From TrEMBL, chains A, B:
It is found in: Membrane. Residues 56-65 have a biased composition (Gly residues). This is H(+)/Cl(-) exchange transporter 3-like. It comes from Priapulus caudatus (Priapulid worm). It holds the Pfam family Voltage_CLC. It is a multi-pass membrane protein. InterPro entries: Cl-channel_core, ClC. Its main location: membrane. The gene is LOC106813292.
Amino acid sequence: MEEHEPLLDVMSELATSASAFQRLSTTNGPAAAAAAAAATRQMSDDEIIDVSLASVGGGSGGSGGAQAEPPGSDNESDFGAHSKSYGTYNASSEDTDLPLGVGQYEDFHTIDWLRDIARDRLRHRHIVKKKKESCWDSLKGWHDAWSGWMCVLIVGCAAGLTAGVIDIGANWMFDIKNGICPSQFYFSREQCCWDSNSTFVQQDCPEWQTWPNVFGATDAHGVWYYLLQYFMYVFWSVFVGLLAVTLVRQFAPYACGSGIPEIKTILSGFIIRGYLGKWTYVIKSVTMMMAVSAGLSLGKEGPMVHMACCIGNIISYLFPKYGKNEAKKREILSAASAAGVAVAFGAPIGGVLFSLEEVSYYFPLKTLWRSFFCALVATFVLRSINPFGTSHLVMFYIDYNSPWFFFELIPFIILGVFGGLVGAFFIKANIHWCKYRKASKLGLYPTAEVLAITLITAVISFPNVYTRINTSELIAELFQQCGPEDSTDLCDYNRNFTNVNHGSESAESGHGVTRALWQLSLALVFKLLITIFTFGIKVPAGLFIPSMAIGAIAGRMLGVAMEQLAFHNPEWFIFKDMCNRNEACITPGIYAMVGAAAMLGGVTRMTVSLVVIMFELTGGIQYIVPIMAAVMTSKWVGDAVLKEGIYDAHIYLNGYPFLDSKLEFTHTTIAADVMRPR
Amino acid sequence: MEEHEPLLDVMSELATSASAFQRLSTTNGPAAAAAAAAATRQMSDDEIIDVSLASVGGGSGGSGGAQAEPPGSDNESDFGAHSKSYGTYNASSEDTDLPLGVGQYEDFHTIDWLRDIARDRLRHRHIVKKKKESCWDSLKGWHDAWSGWMCVLIVGCAAGLTAGVIDIGANWMFDIKNGICPSQFYFSREQCCWDSNSTFVQQDCPEWQTWPNVFGATDAHGVWYYLLQYFMYVFWSVFVGLLAVTLVRQFAPYACGSGIPEIKTILSGFIIRGYLGKWTYVIKSVTMMMAVSAGLSLGKEGPMVHMACCIGNIISYLFPKYGKNEAKKREILSAASAAGVAVAFGAPIGGVLFSLEEVSYYFPLKTLWRSFFCALVATFVLRSINPFGTSHLVMFYIDYNSPWFFFELIPFIILGVFGGLVGAFFIKANIHWCKYRKASKLGLYPTAEVLAITLITAVISFPNVYTRINTSELIAELFQQCGPEDSTDLCDYNRNFTNVNHGSESAESGHGVTRALWQLSLALVFKLLITIFTFGIKVPAGLFIPSMAIGAIAGRMLGVAMEQLAFHNPEWFIFKDMCNRNEACITPGIYAMVGAAAMLGGVTRMTVSLVVIMFELTGGIQYIVPIMAAVMTSKWVGDAVLKEGIYDAHIYLNGYPFLDSKLEFTHTTIAADVMRPR
């Protein structure tokens, strides 16, 4: 009986561990082969320049990365090895008995999920067995049971802290383009004006000095003032852009880009040493603030996910259960990526769903709960830091509550089509440009490229007020409804102010609106084009915010058009029932919101997570049907034009061995097709 | 070459279909065995009374249900059968060639996922092959490709329609307890008063006649009036209760209960004939309105999921791809259950997540998108019907926007602990009672049981205003903040009305609040106890609303206590920084909301989906951290006391062969433990 027991255990363990392998059955054979194929191919890619430059991590680097185990043989031999190690398992040799030691995977190899999970079960069994022996061992057992939760707790705290610091830092660095707080130079404009007793109108804060002020120009409407401001804007942009690219290239080549394609690949079971290391983390944090401050058309939300995963990776080494087991570590990384989105958008549930829908490969319910907890902690810590000085987390809070009407579904669906088409166009153009960069000499001069893009962006951005301001501010402004107190161009309606209570009544657009629409359409074209060239340069760059901005601009423009249509044609049958002259029946802000969701959907092809993120961002719970309709349309249209989203496209572009779980292979597929995508 | 191709195809098909089997590796061996074991065991259970009574469906019923294939043998023999059928596959014999024909599974058998998916691939391949032959065939191919989306579209529409009709019907039937609209007897109170020109104060609608009015009693404060009202209330309750149980017993025994445990089992691959049939659907729709109208402590949200799944099942027969393939049909059922929650709560995203987290077994991304679309359509249709007469879908919309403070996390976590403990107590007590019912003679008299419960509920409910009203109205009232215009007991504060603008200032509680608290505490105890006995009787009965009501009462009481604590002790250090006398710093409504979430979490052990449902219900996006904290605590505490949620507990109670994907087996588990839970 004593002899038979281990065999029984092995069987039950294999049976139960099978339940943990949701998608692993595919991973084992073809993915390992794909890994080998892709790793070999990758060597010839330009991308490998970065890889071989990597000075971080202890891996074997580029040259050793091309060898993988022969794909066919690993299955059976591994099983044999397992049963042997099960049989000879010895309590005292916990570390030495592991088949390949701790750093058992080489760089650019695919992990063996089955073996890692089996190893974890062995470890666990050992702990459970010893638990009754002494008090210390039972404490160790307790620690082991809770270490997953502890780990995500720490990851959540660290992610929240990082996000808080970066938010404050990026704000300060963006403001320093325009001026400085002479008393405390490390204050952002808002912090500088907090001390001020003056009223809170934007222009009147004597403590804050614009650069022309500092250099002695006082006439805010003079040419000299404008030129000085322009020069400082461009100068600072180029300076921090250059600094960012230099830092990235010198210290952490992996810190560039959004990181989400690579994280998807890593979570699917690939090893890229140093990609989630501490240097990547530090350099990406610093350079991300710089990239935002340089005014480039990029967001800090995608990179936040990468940084949260870096945190997850670093913290997991405190818990050998996760740090020494690549398969288990991926559970922490899934939770960390949820925390990343949670702090990036203040959207904890959106983060969990993003991790589930977009990045994770293996997402059992236990990981769902841990991700939930991790996102909760991260959001909580960020809220405690309160980087924006508002008591709520909602970034683009909308304060209107106007209903939407059924006929509006038509423009919403048009926005969805727009998002799908433009999103697909964007992906195609961006991939085309990235391929060109790899093939041509351009790829050899990343610094020059960043310099050029920064210069062009800054020079073109400054004259247009909608591109000059921070992109998130632009989105927030586009989402808003015009109240009677708003005096911006976008809200310049010929209103009749005798009746103050009906501030939101329908009105004819004034000259300001026309001017704003012109500027917005220029901004739309510019943002779309420059983002194509920006996503892929060697600085940290996220896509969420630029995509949302493009969609929001288009949406707002359509919204204003609809509004004016309804105002000038109140007798049309679609408007007659719904609208009356005294109340605004069309809110352009809703269109901006829907447009932003549609465009983001077209670019990333997210669905559920995107809708949740949108309403966590805005609080607009009653617009869920329009947002869902637009996102669904956008996904359908986008999928019809181009099958994959931007992240998958970049995965294929870089030749990562990623076996998409969404892919369905048709019946004439042969194994080679699966193994070699593209 | 021609000979080899089929073999290659088979291989690639098996490889790719393996990717579709997320959790199937476990289902195949142990679940089939568990099915056999459980089905055998079930025969001795009392529950089988219902099963053998079932007059619906064409299955072999109870007696034939105990036989299953020998668990060990099916794996290899099936594979053999497959390769044979692959080899001999003939285009013209699509229907006859299927291994066991259309109704190939017997009642109470577990389906063979692998075979069904393989069959679907065969069918698909056949269509793809023929596609190029003629225009008609290519049209058929197109229809086949889109039939999944078409199917969920129709399911969504039907679910939305059903929900609209039921909402209107239940409203009317609930109002008829109190009175009638003589001009149009089929109008609910609200509809009746729409025509009225009188102001919209609750008491003043001459069109609506209470029963005492009808019988000639005019003095609304007289004893006679009260007694007449009481009598009619009890009489109507007992009458509709009796009608409901008779209908259920006569026509559709499967229509009782919430249906969620059975749907979980069905989705995990079990066959219960007639459980999702048209009779169940019709009878459940009708009797659910009656059960709600009988004033029983139950909700119509859980049954709505069951009814949506019935719709899914019925509609799937329009599309042979789904109707004739049990494995594929489950994809539609997953989407349908999402639509069910979506229309029950007006929470489309919550529905998708509920389907993912709670009921579904196999949930690939394609099903996620379809569920999303199905929920969207259902929500849209329901909104078009607009059963509540409000333009937004949010059921318990909260209109306050007051912040919460960090120290409040302590009471929120206390609510979480309360939810976890009381939830676990509720499950234990309810399971205990259900076991007693099965074991004793009580189970033989379901009609008498319903009669008794209805009578007791009605007699006790009427005197207490908080139990007399509809449970959803109670929840809505508890979630609200007191404004200066509110004159209910709960809002009876000794306010200083000289300053009208500060309506929400902190104030001492008046006598009304004390009275309300007393009544609420009685209601709490009563609801908790009566729900234990109610959940399990032979009428349709959901648990969401009663659980939320219990939690909301507890939360509101704690909230008022905190509020008064802060008012009377403003010098305490936790209150000193946060609160000042002129502004209310504690909103009892938030506590009610958090309490409702915590209690529902304790009973069902949902996490992410629950949080999303809560904020789709209330629109309270800025209270996401409190709700998440309470739900997480509640889950932890609940799991510590009792491992399974109410649905899993009922699955075990009824002996369904359900292999929980959340279960993790420890290392000493032997196969028999997995096969025989309990």
